[in-house]
Request: fold
Amino acid sequence: MRADELRALSLFDGLADDQLAELLQGSTEVRVEPGAELFREGEHADYWWVLIDGAIDLVRHIGREDTVVGKMDVPGRWAGGFRAWDEHGVYLATGRGATGGRVLRVPAGVLREWFNAWFPFGRHLIEGLYHTARSIESTARQRESLITLGTLAAGLAHEINNPAAAAARAVDALQTACQTLLSSLGRLAQGEISARQFTTLDTLRRQIEPQAAARDPLALADREEALASWLTSHGIAGEWMIAPPLAAAGVDVAWCERAAIVLEGPALGPGLEWVASTLSAATLLSELKESSRRISELVAAIKSYSQMDRASVQHINVTDGIESTLLMLGYKLRDGVTVVRDYSADIPPIQAYPGELNQVWTNLIDNAIDAMDGAGTLRLSTRADGNAVVIEVGDTGPGMPPQVAARAFEAFYTTKDVGKGTGLGLDIARRIVVERHAGTITIDSRPGRDRAAGPHPPAAARGPGANGQLTRSTAAGPGPSCYFTPDPDRT
Reply:
């Protein structure tokens, strides 16, 4: 490798010819072959790798898959060499050849010697910055992850608690109903009613249509009172227990009169109690079924949100991720937040990292709710725009002052009270949009308006359209707007 090849790289601007020659003398040119690994994630970063030409994928093992998290495709980009400043420095990703090319491999020890000789003050600055930044960012991101996890866990517990509690109550009541049913059957048997009488009573029971029951609470109360009076006038004890399920199922006094003809004497009470307990059991089973269905839906939504047991890159419908996010944040939406959905029917599937996009939707929707102080209108819109998909998120919050909007995507910058935010939500969203989906993210904030309602939508998210490539995405409200540009090489 010649010194003039390094001179063409902006990375080495300012170095003298003798310094470039010394650099070449202590380094090695390595050929890059497609698919070949140059360095591996987690191993000591003993070498500094400088791209001369070609391209290298930076791959991390996430979950059970290898995921491309970055790319070295511009001459002069570099990776590794961290042990020049930190003896514990490791490669943050695996370097794998994407196309043929060349890299300059420099031992970390040699890099450290160069810095000591050429930039002694710069070495101290880099060491301090490296250690301080790594410590602060690691701690802050861990705290942000715990806060997000705690928020979602609290919301999930709140969502699951209602159907779970309803199911528990239904099971307890069902046990009582079954005991009453068996007791009434025993009393009917003691009354020695005939098989024909029981069959006729069961026929009358089957004629009851619960769906015809009065929905008006006042009408239901009147019906229950009329049935209780009828039961009392016929000497039937326990009218307070028999009348409610009969009334809820739509039974009237005329039906009871027909039952009285079938069961004369002391058998009437146990007979009506048996009918009431079967109706109660059926109602409780329906409640138990509905509660179980709701819990199953929540579990399915959680799996969809977390992308559990799914590939990292998928062809997805973006509205599925948005709906999963709304479900996860549902406990924040009930008290005063109106959600307006405007989903277009012609949205094509997009190729993206759905789990990561769900983090974007979570941050943007959660910020919108906070901006409205828990009361207002949250507007979500999706539409096709050429070969792109546009997602708009708007809210009726007060908006961001220009000075805040200018710093919204800075790591650790937050306007929230102490303990309520670390300033990493929009930074994470920016990283996902810019670094993972080759896009940009900006802010369009207009105080006092629903951002998605005006002629200039505040935010839009464009994703891969008919060609399967993610091209643009936006967030709205007093919040960010993300714009993705086509990247045909992204997989």
In short: The chain has three domains: 3-118, 164-291, 312-484.
